[in-house]
Amino acid sequence: MFVKSRPLKAGERVYIGWDAAEAVAWNVAEYSLFRHASRRLIRTDRIALQTLGARYQRQTSALTNGQLFDEISGAPMSTGHAIARFFIPLLQEFSGWALFTDGDVLFREDVGNLFEMADPKYAVMVVQHPPILEAATKKAGHVQQAYPRKNWSSVILFNCGHLANRALTLQALNTWTGRDLHAFSWLRDAEIGELPARWNHLVHISQPDPNPALVHYTLGTPDVDGHEHDPFADEWRLAARVAGYSNLLAFHTELQGVGKAAV
């Protein structure tokens, strides 16, 4: 079914989580966003602890495997944007709407359709995934922590002007634990709106969906060993080729016909 798109309004921004170790994934995410999005008023920004400059004052160290460790939380961070995403309302000067996504996503639908669902009564809107209570490893063996509302924060539509988000002061952002931030502990339940599950489809975690709007490769993008045949991997690799990573298509000879698809 055709879904009518509309231009993003002034003040609407898309922040994609940046990690230098996942630069390919970031560029695929950005390309797929622009591939499907309305043509006007689209602005994307990288967000990570490095892009925040002096605003980011949390003591951070590195483990022997290279994974970042947040000293305040006493826990490792799976990416360089693990905490940075919560600075978005502050960056937006507590005004307007802004979307955050992890860097390992593939857009398959116009992001304007997501902004169309923005409801001003909510401070944030997220896909409210069922609880995942056990810690595990993913991608390059990095530990991912278990916490309430796990994966809710991987795609966040922020109502930056909502009064409740003013609790995200610079001091709070630099002193609260990551567990509290990812659990949206500064909000009441009634201030957290729900997005359709198709806007944060977790590969191999969510229930199967033949047509998700946003695919999230939280366990590893299709260029990671063991994930070459994950759902929508052909689409991801095609987007990677158009984004400038043509060598990724060489991984599997069965993709010879994929390049003929319209991009």
Mind explaining what this structure looks like?
This protein has 263 residues and is an alpha/beta fold. It has a single domain, classed as Alpha-Beta Complex (Spore Coat Polysaccharide Biosynthesis Protein SpsA, Chain A). Helices cover 16% and strands 18% of the residues. The strands form four sheets. It has a six-stranded mixed sheet with strand order 2-1-6-11-8-12, covered by helices on one side. The protein has a three-stranded antiparallel sheet with strand order 3-4-5, with no helix packed on it. A hairpin with a 4-residue loop joins β4 and β5. The protein is globular. The protein starts with 12 loop residues before the first strand and ends in a 21-residue tail after the last helix. The model is unreliable at 1-6 and 251-263 (pLDDT under 50).
The parts where pLDDT drops under 50 for at least 5 residues are 1-6, 251-263
Strand content: 15-25%
CATH class: Alpha Beta
Strand arrangement within the widest β-sheet reads 2-1-6-11-8-12
Average of per-residue pLDDT values: 87
